[in-house]
Design a protein that fits this description.
Layout lengths: L7 E4 L8 E8 L4 E4 L4 E6 L8 E6 L2 E2 L3 E4 L6 E2 L1 E5 L5 E5 L8
Antiparallel strand pairs: 1-2, 1-7, 2-3, 3-6, 4-5, 7-8, 9-10
Amino acid sequence: MNFKVGDKVIVIAGASKGKTGKIIKTLRRENRVIVEGVNIVKKHRKGNGQESGGILEVEAPIHASNVMIVDPKTKQRTRIGHEFDKNNKKIRISKKSNEKLD
C-alpha cells in the first residue's frame, strides 16, 4: 500500500465518491484506510459509570483501491510512483506533476 497517515486523498468509488480528507489510520493487513469525514457509520454504545451511552458517528475503513492521493501542485487525483534520491533512499512522487509526496 502506498498511503501514509496524513496523506490527503479523494474517494473515487462508493457511497462517499468525490469526498476528500486526510488519512487518519492505515490498516495494512486488510489493505484499508480510515479517512476523516468519509464513510461515516452510526455505532451504538452502551453507557458505563464514567461515559454516557448513545449513538456515535465514526469513520469506518474504506478499501485502499477506492481512494487516490491528491496532487499537492495541481490539486487533482494522481497515481503514486517511486524513485530513488541521491542518498539511495526510496521516495514517493506524484505521476502528474513529478512532485515529491513525503
